[in-house]
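User: Predict the complex.
Assistant: Input components as received:
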Amino acid sequence: MSEDEIIQGLKRGDERIFRELVDRFQKSILVLCMGILLNREDAEDIAQDVFAEVFLSVEKFRGDARLSTWIYRIAVNKSLNHVRKVKRRKWIGSLEKLPAGSESTGTLDTDLGLPGNDLEKKQLSRKLHAAIDSLPENQRTAFVLSKMEELSYKEIADVMEVTLPAVESLLHRAKSNLQKKLWNWYKKEME
Amino acid sequence: MKCRKCRDQLLSFLEGSLSGSELAKVEDHLAGCLRCRGFALHLKEALALVDREMVIEPSPYFYTRVKARLQEHKQPERERIAYRILQPAFFSMLLLLAIFTGIQLGKMTSSETVANETTVNYFPWMNEIEGEPIETFLMKQS
């Protein structure tokens, strides 16, 4: 089914076509949300919200970009809004509850579904999540779209509504920041 | 190639996006530097973890939940529309009722006043105050 047929079907409120759209995009949208939110439950929640919004606001889709780009854009915006909301809540919570000097864990999952006895991997996973979580929003989004969604630079630029050189720069800085964080941890472990 | 420069390129190296000469330089450095090789392995493991953890499968109830979410979105919309129409209608009705009651009460009060005046004017003998005072009455009796 072509993209145009899907859009027309959605505009008619055709449920069969909506189901096909969900089936086609659910995994990639879920992975994208997971990459930004770093929490499975939140990712599922936001991904469901993304599809509901697609169905309800398809009339607003002007067709300037591809349908997938539009859906990715909605997912990125919703995920980033959620990250901001969680961070704001945690910040307020930290002012009220946490003792001075406590470090916020951001949106990290403590149980990542890894085998319970694999402590080393769990630690590495936590470090990696913390490193991704510490990236600025736009670097994190570019990294997730590139690494997990395997989008081209052009596609990332379309989703993020930035230029190609901006995408290159964001990805370079994201990788560099991740490497630095992981290197610092690695160095400490080796000492 | 220095360690720092090698580390900066490790992610690209592991992703396989380095060009020929750069790739050769990184490979040469890793072959001779134990520390950087160790870090490269650490990074490789971390990237593998990203693939393993982040690439999750949607739950089998995903579509059902999306449908439920759609209902949630639609419900408040309907409620909002109903609220937008019904609230002004309710207050308009209330206002009209208040005006009507006011008019009716006004009418009743004025007709009562007229009736009172009529009673006083037409039946003066019924008004005991304006009639014979009690003192006069008692004097007459005595």
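The first helix of chain A runs from residue 3 to 12.
Let me know if you want any component modeled separately.
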